[in-house]
Amino acid sequence: MEIIDTIAAFRQARARFGELGLVPTMGYLHAGHLSLVRRAKAECGAVATSIFVNPTQFGPNEDLERYPRDMERDLALLRAEGVDLVFAPAAAEIYPQGFNTFIDVGGVTEMLEGAARPGHFRGVATVVCKLFMIVQPTRAYFGQKDAQQTVVVSKMIRDLNLPVEVVVCPTVREPDGLALSSRNTYLTPEQRQAATVLSRALTAAQRRYEQGERNAETLREAMHSLLAAEPLAQVEYVSAADPLTLHELEVVGPRGALLSLAVRIGATRLIDNVALE
Ligand code: AMP
């Protein structure tokens, strides 16, 4: 496994491989990230993982400075998975003095995470596009955990004709349903217990859907009522949206729906979602 921190050296190393899968991450790896790496290993001749805590996708009052980092541990995990290339640049390598070009995907970036975190998807789209240009992957692997991100990246690829195929992988969860996230490490034991309310709310609404409920407001209310019962949970949004446009639905139609929510447990902001087929 080669660990590379400059764009020039990465381009040289990449040239030795044909088909290449890319797993972009912000590090502090867990089993969710590793499920993407395994899928990429199974489907591609070679695999590259990027580790980069991207400053442009964090708002001024967000957790950029305290975002958890453990490069040695991450590298050991990636080595054990048989990853070929790791790209772990410093911020100044990606955003040198004078950097001034950003990608604005529009439409699907306006609601949900985009409304709650202004500028977030501008930072995501910009860094993902740069990583695609540097890494030149055949396929790129993303988690369903960040559902809106997969919609935004797919739209950018279509709009800009980028020669990359997106593969979306299922959300990996703890046995009690909590979606794995690097941010779970912020939670105290009591908050960790309370955090199961996200997946419980989604499961409750999903069950209503499976029993035949198609009124989207009823599904949103089903999530709200579980969340209201958890005193440590502060709801930011609850959504039942069209899976392609991300517009809120009145009725769930043949395209199904994306149920998603963002909840603060203490100071920690958690997101989760489930796709209704
Ligand atoms: P991050 O390091 O949080 O930027 O995540 C890197 C990639 O891993 C993104 O595509 C995430 O959607 C994905 N990911 C994060 N958590 C999970 C999870 N619990 N299950 C599956 N994929 C995940």
| SS class | alpha/beta
Morphology: globular
Work out the helicity level: 25-40%
Tell me the span between the first and last alpha carbons: 39 Å
Output the CATH class name of the largest domain.
Alpha Beta
Largest sheet, spatial ordering of strands: 1-4-3-2-5-6
Main sheet characteristics: 6 strands, parallel
Number-wise, the strands total 9
Explain briefly what this protein structure is:
The protein has helices spanning 7-14, 31-43, 71-80, 91-94, 113-116, 120-135, 147-160, 189-194, 197-210, 216-228, and strands at residues 2-4, 20-25, 46-51, 85-87, 139-143, 165-169, 233-241, 257-265, 268-276. With 277 residues, it is an alpha/beta fold. The protein starts with a strand and ends with a strand.
List the helices and strands and how they pair.
Blueprint: E1 2-4, H1 7-14, E2 20-25, H2 31-43, E3 46-51, H3 71-80, E4 85-87, H4 91-94, H5 113-116, H6 120-135, E5 139-143, H7 147-160, E6 165-169, H8 189-194, H9 197-210, H10 216-228, E7 233-241, E8 257-265, E9 268-276
Parallel strand pairs: 1-4, 2-3, 2-5, 3-4, 5-6
Antiparallel strand pairs: 7-8, 8-9
The chain binds adenosine monophosphate.
Summary keywords:
single chain, 277 residues, alpha/beta, Rossmann fold, Pantoate--beta-alanine Ligase, Chain: A,domain 2, 2 domains, six-stranded parallel sheet, 10 helices, 37% helix, binds adenosine monophosphate
Describe this structure in words.
- The chain is α/β, with parallel strands linked by helices and about 280 residues long.
- It folds into 2 domains: about 1-170, HUPs (Rossmann fold, 3-Layer(aba) Sandwich), CATH 3.40.50.620; about 180-270, Pantoate-beta-alanine ligase, C-terminal domain (Pantoate--beta-alanine Ligase, Chain: A,domain 2, 2-Layer Sandwich).
- The chain is about 35% helix and about 20% strand.
- The chain has 10 helices and 9 strands.
- It has helices at about 5-15, 30-45, 70-80, 90-95, 115, 120-135, 145-160, 190-195, 195-210, 215-230, and strands spanning about 1-5, 20-25, 45-50, 85, 140-145, 165-170, 235-240, 255-265, 270-275.
- The protein has a 6-stranded parallel β-sheet with strand order 1-4-3-2-5-6, sandwiched between helices. It has a 3-stranded antiparallel β-sheet with strand order 7-8-9.
- α2 links the parallel β2 (about 20-25) and β3 (about 45-50).
- α6 (about 120-135) packs across α7.
- The longest helix is centred in the middle third of the chain and has 16 residues, at about 120-135.
- It is globular.
- The mean pLDDT is about 100.
- Adenosine monophosphate binds near residues 25, 35, 142 and 172.
- Adenosine monophosphate binds near residues 35, 172, 179 and 180.
